[in-house]
Amino acid sequence: MTGPDQYASVRYLVDDVEAAIDFYTTHLGFELNTSAAPAFADVVRGPLRLLLSGAASSGARATPADAATPGRNRIHLICDDLDAEIDRLRAAGQALRSDVVAGPGGRQVLLADPAGNLVELFQPAARA
């Protein structure tokens, strides 16, 4: 296993690696780490390394057919001003997949990448 000082990696299966790179780098502040498009790329944001696997990648080929569609899991990105992020994304033509949901821990909204994988934007509640 990797050490605790290395990236935490999450793999998303995507239909179009270039579109996924553009989405994550343009709209969510990720930086391109490596690209072997159209098969694979990885983007990073802080300690998160997001593996974007196209149909030709070994990660996608290892996936059973009954689990090949986007799942109910999602990456969780913390933001300081959820309303400003929503306004910025809508101005860029990005559709939200949920209404804003508020709870005791904070507020959140979902959007989807071009392949339908979910991303949660979360603003923690103010602490007393």
From TrEMBL:
It comes from the Bacteria. Signal peptide: none annotated. Residues 6-124 form the VOC domain. This is VOC family protein.
